[in-house]
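> example.struct
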């Protein structure tokens, strides 16, 4: 059953006004680059997750306008209205207003962007961001721990920029970074294990071979006391650098292919099959952990995949509501909107 029923936008990115009925399990939006296709997905993501995956509210608001509005009709007659008046954003859900989307109203989303295809060889920060967003959806404890860690890290880094900062000045922030950092490591390792349980099997189903693949966590797996010890040992180095050189904010994820680092050993097609496998597993884990089938948003991804992988993409997501943007019409698909 479709979660998203209808979308109405006003002054949202390049759209003066836009409406779309999502009355089929798969909704296809066709348009040239720059026509506003991604903006429709951005509005849906904003309504389901409470934030944009692209930018801040002032960037979303159409140029020379003083507000934007996005109205999303959901399953069971629920309606979410998002308003931005140039200063603050508000969410209205069935007549009740709040400044943030309440946790009970958040809905799982699998977002597939063209850049995700290159995740294997991308920067560590890009991979951290990707998995952070996934793990936040899977587990609220991860989201809380990471948020508190980032706040403590900022305070520690601000102190390190000051002259003559002492060990005592940093101690309380070391304690907080160690506490929340250890929790972040715990949830990262645990969630990554769930992905790796299925990675090779799903990959083989796509590639039709006997290769093995997985994802390795590149970081020090330690408890709170060990984490604290590392921070204290790095005091002199951090003081000279002016920032925290050790911690979960610098860790990475390494894709592995037949026992080797995939970036450099796997072919372009093999890398893309690994990312497809990851996306399929992402949807399944979200459904299991959250208890709701995620909405799948595919942003102009067909241009990056050959016909075989396109078919796997559609087949593996057929049990979920899909909203797809593309510059061309894939075979056997009906266009719902043309921009």
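> example.seq
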């Amino acid at each position: 059953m479709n979660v998203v029923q209808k979308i109405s936008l006003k002054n949202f990115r390049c759209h003066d006004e836009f409406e779309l009925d999502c009355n089929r399990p798969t909704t296809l939006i066709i348009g040239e680059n720059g026509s506003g296709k991604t903006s429709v997905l951005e509005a849906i993501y904003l309504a389901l997750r409470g934030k944009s995956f692209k930018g801040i509210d002032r960037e979303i608001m159409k140029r020379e306008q003083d507000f934007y509005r996005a109205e999303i009709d959901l399953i069971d007659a629920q309606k979410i209205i998002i308003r931005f008046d140039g200063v603050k954003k508000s969410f209205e859900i069935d007549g009740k207003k709040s400044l943030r989307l309440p946790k009970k109203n958040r809905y799982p989303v699998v977002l597939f962007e063209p850049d995700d295809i290159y995740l294997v060889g991308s920067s560590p920060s890009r991979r951290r961001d990707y998995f952070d967003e996934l793990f936040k959806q899977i587990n609220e404890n991860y989201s809380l721990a990471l948020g508190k860690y980032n706040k403590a890290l900022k305070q520690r880094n601000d102190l390190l920029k000051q002259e003559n900062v002492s060990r005592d000045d940093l101690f309380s922030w070391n304690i907080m970074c160690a506490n929340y950092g250890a929790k972040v490591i715990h949830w990262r390792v645990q969630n990554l294990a769930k992905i790796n349980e299925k990675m090779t099997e799903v990959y083989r189903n796509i590639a039709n071979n006997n290769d093995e693949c997985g994802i390795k966590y590149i970081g020090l797996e330690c408890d709170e006391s060990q984490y604290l010890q590392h921070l204290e040992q790095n005091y002199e180095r951090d003081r000279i650098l002016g920032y925290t050189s050790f911690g979960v904010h610098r860790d990475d994820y390494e894709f592995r292919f037949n026992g080797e680092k995939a970036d450099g050993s796997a072919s372009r097609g093999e890398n893309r099959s690994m990312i497809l496998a990851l996306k399929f597993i992402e949807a399944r884990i979200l459904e299991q952990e959250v208890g709701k089938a995620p909405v799948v948003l595919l942003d102009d991804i067909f241009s990056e995949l050959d016909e075989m992988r396109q078919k796997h993409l559609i087949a593996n997501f057929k049990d979920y509501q899909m909203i797809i943007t593309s510059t061309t019409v894939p075979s056997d698909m009906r266009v719902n909107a043309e921009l």
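> remarks
The chain has two domains: 4-107+295-338, 116-272.
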